[in-house]
Fold these 2 entries.
Entry 1:
Amino acid sequence: MLRRTITGVMVAAAAAMPVTVATAAPAAAAPAILATQLTYSDSQATQYSSQIAAAVQVWNSSVTNVQIRKATTGQTANIRFIADPGWPRAQLGPVRPGRQVTIWMGRQAIDQGYNITRIASHEMGHSLGLPDVKPGPCSSLMSGSTGGVSCTNPNPNASEKAAVQRNYAGTAQVADTSVILEDAAY
Ligand SMILES: [Zn+2]
């Protein structure tokens, strides 16, 4: 009686093995959710290259649904940085592959002492579809200049990260990039 029971269990286990393998295969083959890949160019703002690269790194480590790398020579970048004498400003995204938005790295704010990496990261927030949230604290990236001249925080807060994740979740509408947001200090 006991032997027959054990044998029955072993047969059942052996029979279950191929089934286990069969169910594991489709799971392993499930398509991964790929991040939207964007490119940027700093060729017209080379004096700010290191701060722009730092801002790109901030965003790449803050979100997963979109990733940004430097455009190769001759490649049209999705996000174009231009050094400019005015106030920092940017075309509102979210920019998609095949499209281009511009960020003007305005020297007027830089001359007043605003942190360059925070400016680049804030304007990239606009490229990725975030509006200004002014006035706001330094902990908010999109508070921009209202965070104060002494504010050096280049990192989006939790809600800002979540908004960009939603913008690149695959269901968002293509933005009208004719809107330009200017970040004059006030
Ligand atoms: Zn802004």
Entry 2:
Amino acid sequence: MKYGNRRVLDDNNIHESFSIRDIFFLSKLSKLDSSKMVTTISTKAVILVQVWALVLAVLMPLLSGAVDTHQVKQLAAKFNVTCILVFGDSSVDPGNNNYLATPMKGNFLPYGKDFFRGRPTGRFSNGRLATDFIAEGLGYTKAIRPFLSKRLRPLDILHGVSFASAASGYDELTANLSNVLPVSKQLEYFRHYKIRLSQLVGAREAENNIKNAVAVMSMGTNDFLQNYYLEPVRPKQYTLEEYQNYLASCMSEDVKTMHRLGITRLVVVGVPPLGCMPLVKTLMDQETCVEKYNNFSSSFNSKVKVKLADSRTTLGMKIGFVDAYGIIQDAVNNPKKYGLTETSKGCCGTGTVEYGDTCKGMSTCADASKYVFWDAVHPTEKMYEIIADQAIDSLREQLMG
Ligand SMILES: *[C@@H]1O[C@H](CO)[C@@H](O)[C@H](O)[C@H]1NC(C)=O
Ligand SMILES: *[C@@H]1O[C@H](CO)[C@@H](O)[C@H](O)[C@H]1NC(C)=O
Ligand SMILES: *[C@@H]1O[C@H](CO)[C@@H](O)[C@H](O)[C@H]1NC(C)=O
């Protein structure tokens, strides 16, 4: 590892110096209904793990046997992967929202209690996200920094950052509802990033770097949970199926824009089984996963896969898909297989409703590594690791089959 924990951690402490600004922003947000916004974030964390797996799959279709750091590095070298660029929601946001005037934040305990030095960073989990594990595997850093960080180092610019923003989605309206970064804005920041990269290494090398980068896109949950099910606008315009089609075409457009901006390798993470989220079960007053919501996740994932197949042929991009749905559902159904014991409740508070602000300062379960869910929406660091492992296997098959 080139970077010690300390430097990574210093950056992750950065949110503290912005707390006054955050409060200032929050004071202007009184009209926002934070209870609505909180829900969306957790789901995305699950997706991150999957993204990691996808990245690996894209990079290493020929890899056989267990993936370890050494292999990841070798494959990265073989495919000349030098950089990871992350887009999406809370499943892959390492703290960009700390710098935004949004109530959708996770930069307070118990979030991050199992992160290095037990520090909250803005990640919606007890520890690291899947994309962090990927970056570590590649040997760059143990924790990917948010692009909005004021302490980005040249090496972060070289090896990758996250533009993701918790509570965002494929539908721009989803991000607008929480005043977070829609994909269009994340891509605008990516343009800024390219300028900074060019200043660092020259335009030609920058182009090369981006051509050889792996982009990860992980979102979709909030479009359903934060937007369609809570806000009247979209249901008036679209049936659920039409809305899924709309989201899938938004995604398709985002892929085109990425391609135009020089990205050639992409991993898209599907939505997790929404019906298994503790919050959804609580709201629907069900002990088991809510079938209707799960169906809805799987039908959306099918539409995404069709669109991605189109993009592969029309754009000639390398695109992988991570089946977060299948991986999480298997962990929920067969916890022992993964060393898990609690699949129903989150670790934070009662484990039935808390996430985001409502999880703030809550007591937690003794051992989050036995839990699928960290809060009522987002997975634990442990679950992210599991997802990553599983996704790698399934993706390898997918890409070789
Ligand atoms: C989101 O907000 C931006 C900026 O206010 C606006 O231009 C855009 O039309 C909004 N998008 C949607 C879908 O509401
Ligand atoms: C690998 O990527 C680096 C960084 O972008 C670039 O300088 C180099 O030319 C690439 N090598 C190959 C073989 O494509
Ligand atoms: C969910 O999908 C399954 C399989 O397609 C179907 O049999 C079941 O009726 C659906 N359940 C609900 C509640 O929509």
